Amino acid sequence: MLIVGLTGGIASGKTTVSTMFHEAGIPIIDADVISREVVEPGTTVLEKIKLTFGPQIIKNGVLDRQQLGDTVFGNEANLSQLNAIIQPAISNAIQDKLAFWRTQKAPIVILDVPLLVERGYHENDSVDQIIVVTVSEATQLARLKARNQLDDYAANNRIKSQLPLSEKVKVADYVIDNNGTLAATREQVAQVIAKLKEIAPEYAGK
Ligand code: ATP
Questions:
Q1: pLDDT at position 119
Q2: Where does the chain cross the membrane (predicted)?
Q3: Considering only CA atoms, which residue is closest to atom 8 of ligand 1?
Q4: How large a percentage of the chain has pLDDT more than 90?
Q5: Total Cβ atoms within 10 A of residue 147
Q6: What is the pLDDT of residues 31-87, one digit of tens each?
């Protein structure tokens, strides 16, 4: 099975592009969805978070993300403790989903990981190929402001907290330029799918 990492920057169009892959019949594993699933009520991960950071981190049985954010934001020790709890659970869940798609004999799977480069997925064997969805800084700012109702300052802060898109593009096997219309992006997705289908047989059985 060919495992293709999909990444980009905030509001660069990852969700838009992954929906296009889904519509073309290619399975998507979404790391954002998984990161919410692993802390659902009753999970061992939620229990570990409670033991580590205190019971106030849970409200009505549910993880209080605001509290957790306040606890780890700007506190390196707390952040690395949280990552040590959460990241192995996310990796395991991803492996489970990959195993499922192998049983389904899917030739290609898209692994949508917003922080793929930040987490070093490009440096190990986590993915076989990488797609980066890119936009200009101006487009990124405009779309982020419009979608999240942010002013220039807040939107810029969010963009600056991530690795620049120009750095992510360097590790890409395929770059999808999402500055244009949705139709233009869909056309590029179709081209990438054609290339992936060409190489997928090399990964059959893996
Ligand atoms: P995040 O990581 O922040 O969740 P994302 O990378 O998944 O974002 P999307 O949610 O797909 O990005 O796109 C960001 C915003 O830009 C959305 O409001 C989306 O509708 C819009 N958008 C995406 N692509 C285009 C396009 N080609 N033309 C116009 N608007 C677009």
A1: 86
A2: none
A3: 11
A4: 88
A5: 11
A6: 999 999 999 999 999 999 999 999 999 998 899 999 998 898 889 999 999 999 999
Residue nearest to atom 16 of ligand 1 (CA): 143
What structural domains and CATH numbers belong to the chain?
1-27+107-206 (3.40.50.300), 32-103 (no CATH)
Sites in the chain below the pLDDT cut of 70: none
Facing residues of 129 across strands? 4
| C-alpha span between 32 and 25 (Å, rounded) | 20
Assign 174 to helix, strand or coil.
strand
Q: Which residue among 6, 10, 15, 158 has the greatest number of ligand 1 atoms within 8 angstroms of its CB, and so is best to mutate?
A: 15
Number of H helices, E strands in the chain: 9, 7
Output the pLDDT for position 205. Answer: 76
Provide Rg for the chain, Cα atoms.
18
ipTM exceeding cut-off 0.85 for this assembly: yes
**What residue's CA is closest to ligand 1, atom 23?**
13
Q: Which two tokens stand for residue 48?
A: 């570990």
Residue 150, CB-side half-sphere exposure with 13 Å CA sphere: 17
Task: List 176's β-bridge partners, or say none.
Answer: 133
Cβ neighbours for 144, distance < 8 A, ≥ 6 positions apart? 10, 11, 150, 155, 158, 159
